Amino acid sequence: AYYDYARVQDFADLLLGDLIPLVLVPLIFLQLIHIPIAASLAARVRRQDAERFDLLELSLSASERERVRIAADLHDGPIQDLAGIGYAFETWAAVLPEPRPPIVGQLEKSVHHAVDSLRRLMIDLYPPDLDSSQLPRTIFDLAEPLRDKGLEVSVTVAQLPGLAPDTVTALYRVARESLANIAQHARAGRVTVNLGVRGNGAAGPGSGVYLRISDDGIGLGEGSLDRRAQGHLGLRLLRDRVEALGGSMNFTGAPGGGTVVMAILPNDRVDTLEPHRPRGEHGDQQGTGRPIAGQA
What we know:
Layout (H helix, E strand, L loop, with lengths): L5 H89 L7 H24 L9 H14 L3 E6 L7 H22 L3 E9 L9 E8 L19 H10 L3 E6 L5 E8 L24 E5 L1
Parallel strand pairs: 1-2
Antiparallel strand pairs: 1-6, 2-3, 3-5, 4-5
Helix pairs in contact: 1-2, 3-4, 4-5
């Protein structure tokens, strides 16, 4: 038996024509309700991001001001007093008859050691006159506590362009926090620090300065990025600060184990400074393209 399917098709088309408005109209109405809600939520998220950034800036600024104050107090107070005692002690020791008592040499070494320790603490809190020319020397000083703990540390510094103060401060913070993490948590035996430039060093697209710190330790977990509870700003906050300056900061695993911290910041300055050449423990000059290697 054969039946005419046209009537069935016409009825299906009629049902489809009746159902489409019943389906589309509620969906369009629901979408119109969701649009202002979504816009309100998006605006709230943007406000919260702005508030979070403002809080981050306040946290970093307050911490930085406190560090500067403590460093200035150390420089103008105990360090100067101990340095004066050391000079007076040397003068007094020079007029003592020979042979001098052994305690004289021990006291003299203790005073010098106390002065050096306080100066390192001052540098760790906030180095004086921090700028592009002083940044390599400052990073070299930050590596000294690791050498004292028996780690092998290699620091390589290329010729640096003139950098904005915010860029120099961000690089210093990244170096300080990364090396502190390595000293306290990484269980590393070797650390490599590279500070250099991208591109030709001149201001422009693609140019910038980078800081790469790697170790052969146990690696850096995601939970280790934020250690504010232990009194540190945390690498997570520093990553936000670097990104706020238009840069990037990444944490990856090193070949064979360990962690690589890479911070890249743009360069908006055109003047170029000669690299600061810090002197190593044995008086060897370190500079452009040559590693600053130290081994306890």
